[in-house]
């Protein structure tokens, strides 16, 4: 999708594809094991950050806004330069950016590995290359932008664990790359799920993800 306007036009077409799209969305959740390699819960309140990408940032942000221990989730761009961190440019697919979400969380309530478990199981399909659902292009790629060596170790170990266990029918294509920078997206993209709950794209693609989070992770789900 080349622009916000073109995405809106596609949203209208989705209303005619309710059955097929809803079925696709409902099939995305996968039950996966806990990460064998993970950080320990902090003994005291500790603010940490994680940056991930896996398709349109509206849904990823919405999922993590409902995860216990997450204090903030911001839609934005990672992977490219500062001067191209704009939606209309990123949508062309040639800026190096991915639509990403920066997650700020309390490490005494949830671990980095637990965040990745949610990411892999309900937030997106990690076996799709440069696409998620109706969105195609490198800006929708699956990536983990690690901020330190521990995050890199946990992410790489978890991907290997899931691939070896053949949890998914295809191998995981998620990139594990160093975080160079995160650029917040435009204001109209922030909290899009909460502000536009009746938007067809949200209803058919993102609402099922939040529902699956509640079903599969009742101990982590928060209705905030």
Structure commentary:
The protein has a single domain, classed as Peptide methionine sulphoxide reductase MsrA (Peptide Methionine Sulfoxide Reductase, Chain A), CATH 3.30.1060. 37% of the residues lie in helices and 19% in strands. Mean pLDDT is 91; it is low at 8-26. The strands form two sheets. The chain has a six-stranded mixed β-sheet, covered by helices on one side. The chain has a two-stranded antiparallel ribbon with strand order 4-5. The chain is built from eight helices and eight strands, in the order ααβαβαβαβββαββαα. It is globular and about 40 Å long. Helix 3 (57-65) runs parallel beside helix 8 (200-216). With 224 residues, it is of the alpha+beta class.
The CATH architecture category equals 2-Layer Sandwich
**Poorly predicted spans:** 8-26
Helix-and-strand structural type:
alpha+beta
How do the helices and strands follow one another from N- to C-terminus? HHEHEHEHEEEHEEHH
Q: Biggest sheet: strands, sense, closure?
A: 6 strands, mixed
Summed up, the domain count is 1
What is the CATH first-level class name?
Alpha Beta
Number of E-state strands: 8
Shape: globular
Terminus-to-terminus distance: 31 Å
Radius of gyration: 16 Å
Q: How large a portion of the residues is in β-strands, by DSSP E?
A: 15-25%
Strand order of the largest sheet: 7-6-1-3-2-8
Give helix % range.
25-40%
**Quick check: average pLDDT?**
91
What fold name stands as the CATH topology?
Answer: Peptide Methionine Sulfoxide Reductase, Chain A
Number of helical stretches of at least 4 residues: 8
The CATH superfamily title: Peptide methionine sulphoxide reductase MsrA
């Amino acid at each position: 999708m080349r622009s916000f306007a073109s995405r809106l036009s596609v949203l209208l077409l989705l209303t005619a594809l309710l059955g097929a799209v809803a079925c696709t969305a409902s099939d995305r959740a996968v039950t996966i094991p806990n990460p064998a390699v993970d950080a320990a819960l902090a003994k005291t309140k500790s603010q940490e950050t994680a940056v991930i990408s896996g398709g349109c940032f509206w849904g990823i942000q919405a999922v993590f806004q409902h995860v216990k221990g997450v204090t903030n989730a911001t839609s934005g761009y990672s992977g490219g330069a500062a001067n191209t961190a704009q939606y209309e440019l990123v949508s062309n697919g040639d800026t190096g950016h991915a639509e990403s979400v920066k997650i700020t969380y309390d490490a005494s309530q949830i671990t980095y590995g637990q965040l990745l478990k949610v990411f892999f199981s309900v937030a997106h399909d990690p076996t799709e290359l440069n696409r998620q659902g109706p969105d195609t292009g490198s800006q929708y790629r699956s990536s983990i932008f690690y901020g330190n060596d521990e995050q890199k170790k946990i992410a790489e170990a978890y991907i290997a664990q899931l691939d070896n266990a053949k949890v998914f029918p295809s191998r995981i294509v998620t990139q594990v790359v160093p975080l160079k920078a995160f650029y917040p997206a435009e204001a109209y993209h922030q909290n899009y799920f909460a502000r536009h709950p009746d938007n067809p794209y949200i209803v058919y693609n993102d609402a099922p993800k939040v529902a699956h989070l509640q079903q599969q992770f009742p101990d982590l789900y928060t209705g905030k």
